[in-house]
Each structure stands twice: as structure tokens, then as C-alpha cells.
């Protein structure tokens, strides 16, 4: 189940947030070798884990299997403070625009091949549903260019903010991805297909 955590309810999720920070460390530091983020306590926490952040955790039987974070574009975020060079035009800012960061899924719950896993689908569906309920229709993403095709296939409208650049040894491009009811319908159809395959 997806849990949406904000400044008001984060105190109810101390153990789960600790798991989430450890999952982030495992994925971004240990797997992807973003060594600048390494911490001795094994928890990946940065300057954007503030009261402005919305954390979304996929939890099953007390275990955090997936995580993502949403940051308002009207406040400091990754593109504005850390990776401004990825934006070669006027930076998108607005109450309807948030940044989607730190998306990660535990290794054994990831997709194999081209399709989404159940956890991945729940995370993507979760931020689309949350966004639509809160008058948000666009996310900023810094990602590997190969993700552009996947997002288009899921009926996001994707626009690059600049050309890919090498960041921590990876090609990274900043994009905006807009979504609406059609995006949610596509994600729900993927969920139905995942259930059919699992039956």
C-alpha cells in the first residue's frame, strides 16, 4: 500500500522513514555509486528532506519496498540548487509543478524487461493521483534519457529542458512530465495487466 507522508504525519512513520532512507542509500550510494551521498549510518538524507517534502512509501507487511519524494518547484529543489546546468531555458516554477526525486524500488521488486513492476506502478500511479487531487499536473524529473520513452508510453507529456549531461558518471536529462486523467487510465490498465499475469 502507498502511504503519503508530510510534515503533519511524519512522526507516525519514524521506523518506515528510517527504512526509506536506508533504501535510498542502498540504491543511490551502494548500487549507483553516488558516493558523494554516502553516510556512515547507511541513511541517504539530503538538504531537501525538509518540511516541504512529500514522501511516498510503498509498504507491504511493514517493509518499505518503494520510495519517491515530491518537492515544490516554488521552494529549493534539486534542479534549482544542485543541477541548474541541466536546464537550458527558463526554469519551470509554479504551484502546479513539483519535482519528483529519489524514486527507488527494492531490487527483488523491480521490473524485469520492459514492463513496470507492481511496486513501480503503484508509485507512479500514486503521484499522479496525489497530483490530480492537489491541482498539480506537472513534475520535473532529472533522469536517464531512456526513461523518456517509458514515460511517453505511459501517456505522460514529456518536454526536455536541455540536452543530456554527465552527472556522477551517468547521462542525465532534466524534463517536465505533464499528466492528466489519460495518464492515470493508462497506469490503471497496466495494473490490471499485472494482476492478470500474476493470477
Question: Your description of this structure?
Answer:
Helix content is 32%, strand content 26%. With 199 residues, the chain is of the alpha+beta class. The chain has a single domain (2-198), classed as Gcn5-related N-acetyltransferase (GNAT) (Aminopeptidase, 3-Layer(aba) Sandwich).
CATH H-level superfamily title: Gcn5-related N-acetyltransferase (GNAT)
Name the CATH architecture: 3-Layer(aba) Sandwich
Radius of gyration: 16 Å
- Tell me the number of helical segments per DSSP (H or I, 4 or more residues long): 5
Chain-averaged pLDDT: 92
Low-confidence stretches: none
Query: Percent of residues in helical segments?
Result: 25-40%
**CATH topology group:** Aminopeptidase
Global outline: globular
Which series of helices and strands comes N to C? Answer: EHEEHEHEHEEEH
How much strand content do the residues show?
A: 25-35%
State the distance separating the first and last CA atoms.
Answer: 19 Å
Give the structure's gist in a few sentences.
The protein is of the alpha+beta class and 199 residues long.
